[in-house]
């Protein structure tokens, strides 16, 4: 129906004068958001130093702080060792939290503490220890931490005072990388999940590993090869990755667990969560970092398969790699990395859709449960805990950065504000 002439005139008048009312309100929102960001930044800084200083006071040089008892754990050697057997004698840890804090110190602008930490590590840290460690965890946390810190230390804007840095962290990283190599000495090239840093793979070591465990090593080991000029690390990780990819089903899906000696699948059910998650992440980021088309081709095929067989509306269930039929209808906290990965490949619409559902569950419980049963809309009865995983916060940050200046920007501002209220 056509508008009446008088109504049309009022509408035109409103459209002409409305910016005068809207602009100040948007300006106020932007001003409020800027102030809130400054407040959040300071809270994050205080949170970091609260954790860092208490670790240094009560747990250093052990691996992690137990905040309630003000004691420590040497998690690098205790991980997976539920009975705490065969722990190294006179072992005081590997300063794991310090290694993981190095990049944060630089981001916080504390170059003095960064330099002090680098000096201590270069003079005291050793990997010549009789300790059985998880290859995947040690790779992403220790090797990755050392390599990242080395790159920061040699960056022209963050160089250590008086040129006192002489690639000590890279030397430590190379020593650690050499101790990884025996894990890859298998008939398939797929690495054992566990390796003794001093003696290599133990005689009775289990051959069972996860898709993440043997398919998420290329970033750190590839970077180590590029920095040292020694191709062995990247070659070992790439051989394992290609072997793993060759084991995919006709649907381009991979299972969760496998045998490194036979190359046979043990668990056929798969998804984007625990046991598989970082396989997808590393394929995408390896392409971004190294630029090899092989990585993109593998990732693109795997990504399309995930969207076809795991996705159900905004959710992602698990499915049998052979048939694509759904197996478990559950959300796990590790899945929350997925929207961030979708942002990296430019699939913003899908990222927004899946992120909203994760946020819905987070808002319902105040955190992302370790396991949430989608078909029953309830927590898993035996996994009612939250191990402080960062995946949802990371995905939220990626989405905020990707939607700046767009309509969705206000949504992610709201999410970030909610996160700051929860974690502070």
UniProtKB/TrEMBL annotation:
Any Pfam family the entry gives: Glyco_hydro_47
Position of the signal peptide: 1-27
Family assignment from sequence similarity: Belongs to the glycosyl hydrolase 47 family.
GO-annotated molecular function: calcium ion binding; mannosyl-oligosaccharide 1,2-alpha-mannosidase activity
Active site, renumbered: 137 (proton donor), 277, 370 (proton donor), 391
Protein source organism: Gossypium raimondii
Superkingdom to which the source organism belongs: Eukaryota
Listed InterPro entries: 6hp_glycosidase-like_sf, EDEM1/2/3, Glyco_hydro_47, Seven-hairpin_glycosidases
Entry keyword Signal: yes
Keyword Transmembrane helix: no
This protein's UniProt keywords: Endoplasmic reticulum, Glycoprotein, Glycosidase, Hydrolase, Signal
One GO process term, biological-process aspect: endoplasmic reticulum mannose trimming
Main location: endoplasmic reticulum
Entry protein name: alpha-1,2-Mannosidase
Compartments reported by the entry: Endoplasmic reticulum
């Amino acid at each position: 129906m056509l508008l009446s002439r008088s109504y049309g005139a009022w509408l035109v008048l409103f459209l002409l004068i409305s910016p005068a009312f809207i602009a100040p309100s948007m300006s106020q929102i932007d001003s409020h958001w800027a102030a809130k960001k400054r407040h959040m930044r300071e809270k994050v800084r205080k949170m970091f130093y609260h954790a860092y200083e208490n670790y240094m006071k009560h747990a250093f040089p052990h691996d992690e702080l137990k905040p309630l008892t003000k004691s420590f754990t040497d998690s690098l050697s205790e991980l997976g060792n539920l009975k705490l057997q065969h722990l190294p004698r006179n072992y005081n840890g590997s300063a794991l939290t310090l290694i993981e804090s190095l990049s944060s110190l630089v981001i916080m602008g504390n170059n003095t503490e960064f330099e002090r930490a680098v000096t201590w590590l270069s003079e005291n840290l050793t990997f010549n220890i009789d300790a059985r460690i998880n290859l995947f965890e040690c790779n992403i946390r220790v090797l990755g931490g050392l390599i990242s810190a080395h790159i920061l230390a040699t960056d022209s804007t963050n160089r250590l005072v008086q040129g006192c840095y002489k690639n000590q962290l890279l030397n430590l990283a190379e020593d650690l990388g050499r101790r990884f190599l025996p894990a890859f000495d298998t008939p398939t090239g797929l690495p054992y999940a566990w390796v003794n840093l001093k003696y290599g793979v133990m005689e009775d070591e289990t051959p069972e590993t996860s898709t993440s465990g043997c398919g998420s090593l290329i970033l750190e080991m590839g970077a180590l090869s590029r920095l040292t000029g020694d191709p062995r690390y990247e070659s070992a990780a790439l051989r394992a990755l290609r072997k793993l990819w060759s084991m995919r089903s006709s649907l381009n899906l991979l299972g969760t667990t496998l045998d490194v000696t036979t190359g046979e699948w043990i668990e056929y059910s798969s998804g984007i969560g625990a046991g598989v998650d970082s396989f997808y992440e590393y394929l995408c980021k390896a392409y971004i970092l190294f630029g090899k088309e092989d990585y993109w081709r593998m990732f693109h095929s795997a990504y399309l398969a995930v969207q076809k067989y795991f996705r159900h509306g905004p959710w992602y269930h698990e499915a049998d790699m052979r048939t694509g039929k759904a197996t478990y209808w559950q959300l796990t906290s590790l899945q929350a990395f997925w929207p961030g990965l979708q942002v990296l490949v430019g699939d913003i619409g899908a990222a927004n859709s899946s992120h909203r559902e994760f946020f819905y569950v987070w808002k319902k419980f105040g955190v992302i449960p370790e396991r949430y049963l989608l078909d029953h809309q309830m927590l898993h009865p035996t996994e009612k805990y939250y191990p402080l995983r960062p995946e949802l916060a990371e995905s939220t940050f990626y989405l905020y950065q990707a939607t700046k200046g767009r309509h969705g920007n206000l949504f992610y501002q709201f999410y970030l504000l909610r996160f700051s209220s929860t974690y502070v």
